[in-house]
Structure formats: C-alpha cells, structure tokens
Design goal:
225 residues; 8 strands; 8-stranded mixed beta sheet; alpha/beta; globular
Length: 225
C-alpha cells in the first residue's frame, strides 16, 4: 500500500526543513511538494534537501489537487508544511486501511509551543474531530486515492477546504481517527494570542457550518508565517 505525501507550501522557510527531515525518514512511496509562488527560500531549502518542487496556482486546495493528480500511490496523505508526522505514521495508516470499510482518516494533534494551554487545545481538537469524524489539515488527512478521485478532490475554495472534504468523506465510509499524534506549529496561537485564536477559529468554523461563504470568511483569516 504505497503512500503518496502531498505538501502544499507558501513561504514556509522557517518550518519546511523539519517537516521534510521527519518525512524522508519514513520513506514514503513519493513525496510531492507543491509551491504556490513562495517569495522566500522555501523552494531552495527543499531542493537542498534533495526534494523536487512543483509549482501551481496559489491556494491550498488548488495546490493539493495539483499534487494529487500527479500521485501514483494507493493512499494520499495531505500534510501541512508546518506539521511533522510521528515515526509510526505510515504503519498506522496501513493498519487503519486494512479495514475495507475505512475510506480515510486523520491523526490526533499536538501543538509544539510551551504554553500549558496549547496542550489542552491539541487534546480538545483531537477529541472534537474524534466525535465528529471531521479532521482539519493541521492533523494530516489521508484518503484512498480512488476515493479521492471519485470525490473530485478538494473543493477549490479559499478556506475550509479540509472541513468540506472530511464532511464529504464520512458520507462514503468509515473514517479512522488515529491515536498517534502529529506535531503542528503553534505559531498562530503564539503570534495572535491563545484565547483570541480560539475564539476566531471557533467563530469561523461556526459561520462556515451555518452557510457563510468561505470567500467572505477568508477576509477575517490571516495567514501566519
């Protein structure tokens, strides 16, 4: 069961090396990096580490779809550029997909900052997604390639593409909620403030689920690099 890892990137020079070093040790079937037009050293760092970089139109969903169209593995794992996989990641995915009812899944999540509240946030995000069967891109999302193709890929919307995909995915079969944890950068929480970020993310997701357009929501979402 070959696992193709697709990583969308945009100005990730601070985090991409750690992500790639963790990934290459796992020896994925293929590693597909898709840059959306970085103006920093992100592509150069990737090439220095021996990994080729594809370029596509900017937009996380568009970049992941672009990478997925070039993937040949049985499984697609979509991973943010500031997220590191646990050493058992691929074995855990293969074990979960050994059940033919499982169409995809996600990992539990741990934030990498020192603030005590970040541990609570990671645990609450993991619990929420375990109950809802809806993961976020920060958790790493994996899906059988033929299922992803049948779904038509990520909806190319400016925000909440991960939520939209996972909500559609759970209608097609069982979703695996892996106990092993990815480690995700806490830079947003540290930069914008823990409580402010909690409120903003809760509000954005609630408004999206109420039907507010992702294009409108994007105006209130600031990327943190």
């Amino acid at each position: 069961m070959g696992i193709s890892v697709v990583v969308p990137m945009l100005n990730e020079e601070r985090t991409i090396a750690a992500t790639l070093l963790a990934l290459t040790q796992l020896k994925p079937h293929e590693l597909i990096l898709v840059d959306g037009g970085s103006s920093d050293a992100t592509p150069a760092i990737c090439r220095q580490l021996g990994v080729d970089v594809l370029t596509s139109p900017r937009g996380r969903a568009a970049q992941m779809n672009y990478g997925a169209r070039r993937a040949t593995g049985d499984v697609l794992l979509f991973l943010h550029a500031d997220t590191r996989l646990p050493p058992t990641a691929f074995n855990d995915i293969r074990d979960a997909l050994g059940d033919p009812r499982v169409v995809g899944g996600r990992f539990d999540m741990q934030l990498d900052g020192d603030h005590w509240m970040l541990r609570v946030i990671g645990a609450m995000i993991s619990l929420r997604s375990r109950l809802s069967k809806v993961g976020t891109g920060d958790q790493g999302i994996f899906v059988r390639r033929e299922v992803f193709q049948r779904m038509g890929g990520f909806p190319e919307i400016p925000l909440m593409e991960d939520i939209a995909l996972c909500r559609a995915l759970k209608r097609l079969g069982a979703v695996a909620c892996l106990r092993s944890r990815v480690i995700t950068s806490a830079r947003r929480w540290e930069s914008d403030g823990v409580w402010r970020t909690i409120f903003r993310m809760w509000l954005l997701k609630s408004l999206y689920l109420m039907g507010v357009s992702p294009a409108r929501l994007k105006k209130f979402y600031v990327d943190t690099r």
